[in-house]
Amino acid sequence: MTRTVQQLFDLTGKTALVTGGSRGLGLQMAHALGEAGARIMLSSRKAADLEQAAAQLQAAGIDARWIAADCAKESEIQRLADETLQRMGDVDILVNNAGATWGAPAEDHPLEAWDKVMNLNVRGYFILSQLLAKRSMIARRSGRIINIASIAGLNGNPAMMTTIAYNTSKGAVINFTRALGAEWGKYNITVNAICPGFFPSKMTAGTLAALGEDRLAAGAPLKRLGDDEDLKGVCLLFASDAGKHITGQWLAVDGGVSAVIGG
User: Helix or strand or coil: residue 144?
Assistant: First the structure.
């Protein structure tokens, strides 16, 4: 029997792990998945932030828990996978959202900062995806992996940001998504990427201040920055059976900025 739209988007009985989930875009996506019925495991580095975020989700009627872990470190990622599987059972949905940036002219960019950004934004995505696929998704022939990239990975340097490691890492995430989606399609695991544009958040505060929020909003065809709802729909599409025939793809959520600059 053909399912209704509501049934296709329903995540009741599913479990989602959201890294970088204690605030900003990660917390927004956790709300979306939880509102659709999923149980949520949040992760980020700071326990206090996670406790507050989980309480916010729980107040909205969502089954939410948390584990503090640094997804730039292999041992911490291993512990995160172990504890999540032990406490929640199989993971149906992985949102790779933990990320870092660093602002410096390319000629002066510290090597240790390059490594920090790459380890979290690319290597961490790979390690956690591999662990959960091998230990949960492949055997069940079912899984949804959502990687958070950026329009900075589409165009090299939108708005002339001095963030070469970040921009490079997000370009890598897009091709990682394509390659993994193609390889793991045989296991019925979909792998897709979301490419946000400019959203106000703690991580983007410096960039928005330097470039000017009003100027960035004016440069978008929709004439605004992203808000607290704008990632919910695409996240739910990629996480649910509504998107079961989509894999290896990216979608920009940027108010049309990438259409103007040739994304």
Answer: strand
